[in-house]
């Protein structure tokens, strides 16, 4: 490098800034992308069991194509410090890779993948979408990534289910937007006399839920259907209707009607349980809120007070909310389908 180039670099400050940003901002993104995919493909789990050569990692990932290209990708993982390579074998090296290779790592890796695949694009494209009037569609999401990432909050949703579920009597559950069916399975385990209808809008998600019910031995007690809660022809008289993590898949102005419809499907005294992230949470929740604000089919995360008012407007009694994750805006909302009060004349007639 000659003196004039050096002077320009020092004066313009572009190169030092780029080097610094690439270290502080770009490298963590490459690392996150490598870790998210290596977890999804089962590569980290395989390496947790033992060091592996290229061929066995390719087999673990279901790749029978060009393994030299796979090597180039794995070598980036080595460059990030998450893997090491010696004696012709890859090994886990970084603390994050070791943690994600563990039993509960998949849900965390999927949450990371959700950030990379959905949160980053909306951060990049939101102003352009405003300019061209474009909005996000359901197809801009990948149902399988979302189904895996929501497992992170599973213990909190399960606590909410435990609080409302009648465990002694035979009950009929309707789960709206069941995802892969995890929470229907949990409810069925808590109450062996429970039977359920699990519905999901997305055909591939509903199909996965149906397969899971069969694998879990629940196909006899749980019917799975693909469809939209707003239009499916359903026989009423459920004892419990649940909506987990999907109220923001409905535009704000439709939410009261959706909740009223859910109430119409309940037996007198039946309960609704809704769990959801709300506005005012951490940065990730705010970006999720941004994503759904730009979604054509949905709307922003609810404010807790707004959702309580919508439940009351939908005719629910004893409406209440409580925080499921301390310090975070993730809440459970419940309401009861109060039996209609009978008039004095009806009570007298019934007594006669
Ligand atoms: C974030 S996922 C949550 C899945 C599952 N409840 C959980 O908590 O793991 C939201 C789900 O709601 C479903 N959904 C959205 N709108 C729906 C509608 N109108 N009727 C039925 N399901 C719907 C989506 O297809 C998606 O699978």
Determine the mean pLDDT: 94
The ligands bound in this entry are: S-adenosylmethionine
Radius of gyration: 25 Å
Helix-strand pattern = HHHHHEEHHHHEHEHEEHEHHEEH
Can you give the helix content as a percent range?
Answer: 40-55%
Q: Quick one: CATH class of the largest domain? A: Alpha Beta
Distance between the termini: 105 Å
At CATH level 3, the topology of the largest domain is Rossmann fold
CATH architecture of the largest domain: 3-Layer(aba) Sandwich
The total beta strand count reads 9
**CATH homologous superfamily annotation of the largest domain:** Vaccinia Virus protein VP39
Globally, the shape reads globular
Query: What class, by secondary structure content?
Result: alpha/beta
Strand order of the largest sheet: 5-4-3-6-7-9-8
Residue stretches low in confidence (pLDDT < 50, at least 5 long) are: 345-352
The number of helical segments is 15
Total separate domains = 2
Q: What is the strand content?
A: 15-25%
| Main sheet summary | 7 strands, mixed
């Amino acid at each position: 490098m000659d003196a004039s180039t050096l002077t320009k670099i020092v004066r313009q400050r572009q190169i030092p800034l780029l080097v610094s940003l690439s270290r502080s901002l770009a490298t963590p993104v490459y690392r996150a992308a490598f870790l998210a995919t290596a977890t999804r493909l089962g590569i980290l789990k395989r390496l947790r069991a033992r060091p592996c050569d290229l061929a066995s990692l390719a087999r673990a990932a279901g790749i029978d194509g060009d393994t030299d290209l796979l090597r180039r990708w794995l070598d980036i993982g080595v460059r990030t410090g998450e893997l090491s390579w010696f004696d012709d074998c890859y090994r886990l090296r970084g603390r994050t890779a070791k943690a994600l290779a563990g039993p509960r790592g998949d849900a965390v890796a999927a949450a990371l993948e959700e950030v990379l695949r959905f949160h980053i694009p909306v951060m990049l494209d939101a102003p352009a979408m405003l300019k061209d009037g474009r909005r996000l569609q359901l197809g801009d999401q990948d149902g399988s990534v979302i189904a895996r990432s929501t497992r992170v909050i599973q213990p909190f949703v399960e606590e909410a289910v435990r609080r409302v579920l009648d465990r002694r009597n035979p009950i009929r559950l309707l789960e709206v937007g069941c995802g892969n069916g995890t929470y229907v399975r949990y409810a069925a385990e808590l109450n062996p006399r429970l039977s359920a209808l699990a519905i999901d809008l997305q055909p591939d998600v509903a199909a996965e839920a149906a397969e899971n019910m069969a694998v879990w031995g629940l196909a006899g007690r749980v019917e799975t259907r693909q469809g939209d809660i707003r239009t499916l022809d359903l026989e009423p008289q459920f004892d419990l209707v649940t909506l987990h993590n999907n109220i923001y898949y409905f535009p704000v102005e439709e939410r009261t009607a959706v909740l009223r419809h859910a109430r119409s499907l309940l037996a007198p005294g039946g309960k609704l349980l809704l769990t959801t992230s709300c506005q005012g949470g951490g940065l990730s929740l705010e970006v999720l809120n941004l994503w759904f604000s730009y979604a054509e089919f949905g709307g922003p995360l609810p404010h807790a007070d707004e959702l309580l008012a919508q439940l009351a407007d939908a005719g629910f009694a004893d409406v209440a909310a409580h925080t499921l994750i301390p310090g975070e805006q993730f809440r459970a909302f419940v309401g009861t389908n109060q039996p209609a009060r009978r008039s004095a004349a009806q009570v007298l007639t019934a007594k006669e």
